[in-house]
Specification:
single chain; 103 residues; rod-shaped
């Protein structure tokens, strides 16, 4: 990952402006974690990207479930009718057409 002189391969240098108070907080946290400012920012960006991807996935799943809700309800209603009919036929076969209480 690192080349000669400890310089990161394929790394691009960027310039980011942040309020002084945020910079001081970042530097304090980076120092307490014994890491450089650059590595601290890279970790923070990776963490944000991962969190955002999880959020986007959850939103896609939620939308999918909402879109399928009416179809799922129709399928469940159709299946309950078939299940009820099957139960009636089974009872008739078991009882020989008589009353269940006669079993």
């Amino acid at each position: 990952m690192y080349g000669k002189g400890g310089i990161m391969k394929e790394a691009k240098r960027i310039c980011v402006s942040v309020p002084r108070s945020l910079l001081e907080e970042m530097d304090s946290m980076a120092e307490s974690e014994d890491t450089s400012r650059s590595e601290f920012i890279r970790d923070a960006v990776r963490s944000y990207i991962h969190s955002r991807q999880l959020y986007d996935l959850r939103e896609s799943l939620r939308e999918g479930y909402e879109n399928m809700a009416s179809l799922n309800l129709k399928l469940a209603e159709a299946c309950i009718d078939v299940e009820n009919e099957s139960s009636e036929v089974l009872l008739e076969n078991l009882t020989g057409g008589g009353d269940v209480a006669d079993l």
